[in-house]
Amino acid sequence: MIRVILPGHLRTLAQIDGEVRLDVRSPVTQSAVLDALESLYPMLRGTIRDHSTLKRRAFMRFFACREDLSHELPDALLPDTVINGEEPLRIVGAMAGG
Q1: Which among 92, 66, 91 has a CA at the least distance from the CA of 79?
Q2: How far apart are CA 81 and CA 50, in angstroms?
Q3: In the prediction, which pLDDT does 96 show?
Q4: Hey, which of 7, 38, 52, 70 would disulfide with 93, CB 3.0 to 4.6 Å?
């Protein structure tokens, strides 16, 4: 069971309270997790990654095990602690400004 923590605005959009638990087939990658998430919550399609290119949106970041996984390849395996459900995959809305 993969645990995912979404930013508040996406939890509100999907009407989710707390973290999401997903069954994701192996290999467990960012793409596989997002596919499962968007399948279960279709209203999230296009919010985390682009509809057509499936690339991560610029201001969305992925973290797990105190590491920024945002620039990892979408098909790279997630850390074992995420795959085992010990740690969540955190999706964070980044901010910019100056």
Answers
A1: 66
A2: 27
A3: 75
A4: 7
